[in-house]
Amino acid sequence: MKQKFYPSTHFLIYTFIHLLIYAFALVLFILATPSFALSPEEILVIANGNASKSVSLAKYYMKKRGIPQGNLLKLWVTDKEYCSRKEYEKRIASPVRRYLEQHPFIRCLVMMYGMPLKIGPPQMSPEERQQLKKLEQEKNKIAQKLKGFTKEQKKYQDLKKKLAEIKKQISFLKKRHNSQRASLDSEIALVKVEDYPLAGWIPNPYFLIFRGKKLPFKASQVLMVSRLDGPSDKVVKRIINDSLYAEKNGLKGIAYFDARWKNPGNKSNKKISGYSFYDRSIHRAAEIIREKKIMPVVIEDTQKLFQPGQCPKAALYCGWYCLAHYIDAFKWQPGSIGYHIASGECQTLKRKESQVWCKMMLEKGISATIGPVTEPYVQAFSLPEIFFGCLVSGQLTLAECYFISLPYLSWQMVLVGDPLYLPFRKKACY
Length: 430
Prior knowledge:
This protein has helices spanning 17-21, 24-31, 54-65, 85-102, 126-146, 154-178, 184-188, 233-249, 274-291, 357-364, 384-393, 398-405, and strands at 43-48, 72-75, 82-83, 108-112, 118-119, 182-183, 202-203, 224-228, 254-258, 297-300, 311-319, 330-340, 369-372, 408-409, 413-416. It has 430 residues and is α/β, with parallel strands linked by helices. It is globular and about 80 Å long. It has twelve helices and 15 strands. Strand 1, helix 3 (54-65) and strand 2 form a beta-alpha-beta unit. Residues 1-23 and 25-35 have low confidence and may be disordered. The protein has two domains: 17-121 and 183-427, no CATH class; 126-178. The strands form five sheets. It has a four-stranded parallel sheet, sandwiched between helices. Strands 10-9-11-12 form a four-stranded parallel sheet, sandwiched between helices.
């Protein structure tokens, strides 16, 4: 694949976004058609023959959802959360491509408990290794020369500037290489695409705000991906059962939104960007649910976070920012959905000592969540107002809501939950 570095400002979503949000209800109506709705026949469930409980959980899920038996792909790959790029290509991507060639109707993949969570970068090319080696050698030579001069001498200052420039080049090479890491789920969404850059992120053609823009490829080339995973097989079975229960009985409870600042209202986007932009989106998500009278809404709009015991009957949640330190504020309802905007909150779903939000929320009872396996940058997160707006429309499944609200692929994000989950089916609002 080509190697190209996309800077973190590529395809920023802030410009004119308020104009597009006003068309949100209309777009939902267009998307909520039989040709778009995800069905069990379009799901491919991927399990790991090397991981205990992976295949049995896959069969349990497929039976519950009425997914055809032939839509199970059993792979033999590491049962660790990390796999190399080489193993990903050989043991995961290649078998999936072969299956899709014979089953082109598949639109969504489900990664089962036991499948790797993240992929490492490929090995550096000989040219990249040689370039890095030369730069390291030059850096060491200059460092030695500096010892022969005092800080007051012009030669010292010249060498110091040259050394800083070389360090900058080394840092860029390493950063570009590390930016080729990704979550398995985000990468395999592009398994049908023959050629795309690994470094950095790729604009997601499903993303509502990118509709109508000229992008590298079409939505028809992208597979939706979700994951049925968690700290244990018991947690995964509980996710499946709770999602079905909530579909049948309705997702009931309270929606909690943890913003950092007061709602800025409809100020110009020129005055709101970055963290403030996402904070406002949290407020807008809360407004959508309150206006549609889906359930009671509680907003925390100070620098504080919800504290232990403050959030009973939690059905929906979005908030930030307490890095890798879950706060046990919530009593999760069966079928509850929520995510926490912070770096690396899905870096593991298994390590017992970890306090990352995704792992802990699943352990405590949530049924669906979203998180990154490493630093994603804030603009890579699902946009709250779109995700929750789609969700409460009652017309789109969990996987569809996620992909419509997700800006980038071949990157760090993961959706954990039943992709067919439709918690508000009886409450279609748009």
